Each structure stands twice: as structure tokens, then as C-alpha cells.
Amino acid sequence: MNVLDATRAWMRAQCPLINRQDLFNANYLGAEPTEYTLRTASESHRTDVLGYDLAEYNLTFVAQLPFGRELKPNLDAADFFAALSAWIRGQECTHNYPAVSGYRVTKITASNAGVPTGADANAARYQLQIKLYLEEE
After folding, report:
1. What is this structure's pTM?
2. Residue 63 pLDDT > 90, yes or no?
3. Residue 68 reports pLDDT greater than 90
4. Distance between CA atoms of residues 24 and 61, nearest Å
5. 103-107-112-115 Cα dihedral, nearest 10 degrees
6. What is the distance between the alpha carbons of residues 101 and 124, in angstroms, rounded to a whole number?
7. Of 109, 114, 108, nearest to 128 (Cα)?
8. CA separation for the pair 51, 16 (Å, rounded)
9. Which of 41, 35, 40, 30 is nearest to 12 (CA)?
């Protein structure tokens, strides 16, 4: 499994914050009131002294969530992203990582939790940046 697919499957299966009833796509976000996607933002590679690939992948988790004049949905979105960032940090502490074919994940980080990227009267899109560090096996 590639990095994008492995990370999406890992989050879908293990993160208790991700509602299994909601769509969770890769590189696509539709028009449902609540929907998630994971996108590849960038990657870099270098070679260690033994010739193995050391990779860094930047992914962006995007959630479309209810939004509007009422305060509660907006605060719920902030709480969701704070909890998601904490969950990823917890996975780092226990070394519970996505299973990427041909690689061993050595570290995962989360940053910029809940940054809004767009909104209309009923829904807003928020993002969280995820960085994975990998070593070729």
C-alpha cells in the first residue's frame, strides 16, 4: 500500500473520531455535509549511507463539517481537530503507524489542526497537516 492509501486506511480503521458512516476519500472531497479526504501535499527522498531511501511525506487531512451562525457546530469542529491532533500525537507515543509497503514508518507528526480553508452558509472545510517519516526496508 502506498503512503496515501495506507494512512487513509489506518485512520479509517483506528481513529475513534472518524465516523465510519461518513465518506473518507483520497484526493477528493464532495458535497456531503460531513466528509473527509486525505491528500498528498509533498514528498522528499534522500539516501542513507547504505543506499536505503529515507522519505518524508506531507499529507493534508481535510474535513467538511457543518458550519453556520450557530456557535456549537463551529466549536465542535475546533474540538474535532484538537482531538484528532492529540490522537495522532498519541499514536506517535505508542509507535502505532500506518503499514506502508516496502517501508517502515519511524515518526508521525500533526500540525496546524483545524485551519479553515473555505466555508459557505452550511459547511466549512478544515485541514490538518500530517507528516510521516519513513525508512526503506
Report:
1. 0.94
2. yes
3. no
4. 10
5. 40
6. 34
7. 114
8. 38
9. 35
